[in-house]
Amino acid sequence: MDKIGIFDFGGQYCHLIARRIRELGVYSEIIYKPSEEYVAYILSGGPGTLTDSESPKLPENFFEKINVPILGICYGHQMIAQSFGGEVGRGKEREYGKKIATIKTDSPLFKGLTNNEQVWMSHFDEIKKIPKGFEVIAQTDICKIAAFQNLERKIFGIQFHPEVKHTINGLKILDNFLDIVGCRRTYNLEDWVNKKITELKREIGDNKVIMACSGGVDSTVAAVLLAKAGINAHFIYVDTGLMRLNETEEVKGIFSELNIPNLHVINAEERFLTTLSGISVPEKKRKIIGHLFIEIFEEEAKKLGEFDYLGQGTIYPDRIESAQPSKHATVIKSHHNVGGLPEKMNLKLCEPLADLYKDEVRKVGKMLGLPEKFTGRHPFPGPALAIRILGEIDKEKIEILKKADAIVTNIIRNHGLYEQLWQVFPALIPVKSVGVMGDERTYEWMIAIRAVESIDAMTADWAKLPYDVLEEISNQIINKVKGVNRVLFDITSKPPGTIEYE
């Protein structure tokens, strides 16, 4: 199987590049040093600047030793230019967001594209002088060297990000690069599933696993994989008091329907709410929840006998935002099952889905026989409603958000919109505003509605919900949920925002 090596320089989109290459049928993996097993390399973007001596660099004499096709993106694009004698420096202004690039369509990298393409930019530094032996093949009104190439060596650099869907024909650009490389398109998820089951049998064997389950897509698919591999696993569902309305009963029903044994339901609402009392900083909330989860898991493991592994439904986006795979990445937010874990645990980790993106997880779920109602379920964060209540948490706010969440979900389903959206949910904004109800003055909380469209959670666009649907949501929340007098609609994409608020 041909492999593409993707150098990780700490960019938020690094693993999204890997996801896109896999989508095109070629296996890709994140690397930090070259190897003869790779038929080509992609150099990712990153938050660093080449003028800083501490910024990440390629291995010494990389370009002298490597003779395979190379594609540099953003920071990687600048790194190629500097390595071959070009000049990189600060631009006159930052270029961020959707831009129109004028491109040379006779370049094999841009085969099949038009002369003017929408691309996604995210940079301040830029190439000031192109190196000898390279030619410019794209520019914008701000960035005069938005892409270049050296056809003889099959080296290409692009300042914009083809891996994000805001670059309309970005996937085509990556597809063209794979054609230039001439690699075989043999990677598929069916093989991945078979190899993963074999791997679980080999690595875990007769050892016992205690698995964290929320009833969501990720943990459910991970649980089924363990069951398919014949692993001796016990599944722990912790009712934190922060779950959605009727969530606990739904989880019990899911595991019963899938015939997955050994589900243990733990009621820990009072413990979580007491520990979270007075905490308003998002990272502290996430870490508290992560630590408390592990404490409870280890306590339950002792009650049930000796366990060797802690199973989790961690997927790639969790690890990316928590900056776990990269020594260069910036932490966006800690996920309770990644950045929230304590430094020392008595259990080893088992994360069967840690290399997959959400859409890949859904496909794997279908391959394993899970019905659409499970594989199509919207993502729900591990910290649950704790990060959809901005600021401090208390019982009153939780009850408000539970009721609002049920209303939003029911209305979206009734209008046939649920399957069209990646996520839709309300969040409680801890700001009170004046309102009027029944000729009386009110002073109550705000609810923000977040609805996004995405394919992998790495990027997302805000969903353009019909006005009549928004009106129905607003009316029902205000009329049926005591303590709310104003409903807002969030129109922020990712980036610059994240899907969840905290």
Automatic annotation (TrEMBL):
The keyword Amino-acid biosynthesis does not apply. Its EC number is 6.3.5.2. One of its GO terms (molecular function) is ATP binding. PROSITE patterns: GATASE_TYPE_1 (PS51273), GMPS_ATP_PPASE (PS51553). The active site is at C74 (nucleophile), H161, E163. Coiled coil: none annotated. ATP binds at S214, G215, G216, V217, D218, S219, T220. It catalyses: XMP + L-glutamine + ATP + H2O = GMP + L-glutamate + AMP + diphosphate + 2 H(+). One of its GO terms (cellular component) is cytosol. Keywords: ATP-binding, Glutamine amidotransferase, GMP biosynthesis, Ligase, Nucleotide-binding, Purine biosynthesis. Residues 187-377 form the GMPS ATP-PPase domain. Pathway: Purine metabolism; GMP biosynthesis; GMP from XMP (L-Gln route): step 1/1. NCBIfam families: guaA_Cterm (TIGR00884), guaA_Nterm (TIGR00888), PRK00074.1 (NF000848). Catalyzes the synthesis of GMP from XMP. HAMAP family: GMP_synthase. This is GMP synthase [glutamine-hydrolyzing]. It comes from Candidatus Heimdallarchaeum endolithica. The lineage of its organism: Archaea, Promethearchaeati, Candidatus Heimdallarchaeota, Candidatus Heimdallarchaeia (ex Rinke et al. 2021) (nom. nud.), Candidatus Heimdallarchaeales. The gene is guaA.
